[in-house]
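We close this part of the discussion by returning to an individual protein. The amino acid sequence and the backbone structure tokens for this protein are reproduced below:
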Amino acid sequence: QKQLVESGGDSVQPGGSLRLSCVASGFSLSYYAIGWFRQAPGKERERISCISHSSGYTDYTDSVKGRFTISRDNAKNTVYLQMNILKPEDTAVYYCAAAAVCYNEQDEYGFWGQGTQVTVSS
């Protein structure tokens, strides 16, 4: 079964850091662009970052630019999201998903994982 599994979510205080992992199971992640998304309570899911299959392209939504870093290790079949200077508004369930390229449209992504909870609170 082809799927992505997210991990690394936790409860942290504002200003803290977390590193999320997205591991592919049943397929090689190296052929795909990987996007990170998040959904806060009562809000729509938003796309926050994406990395191309070769790491030659990355993008970030404005609210996380300068604080979050996306990277990948294709040998480990894993994509990471390093999150620094976390804010309460970063509280959400974080998901990863795969696509041929870094599309803006969420409908173009597949192999969605179950998500990992990030809570930022003092």
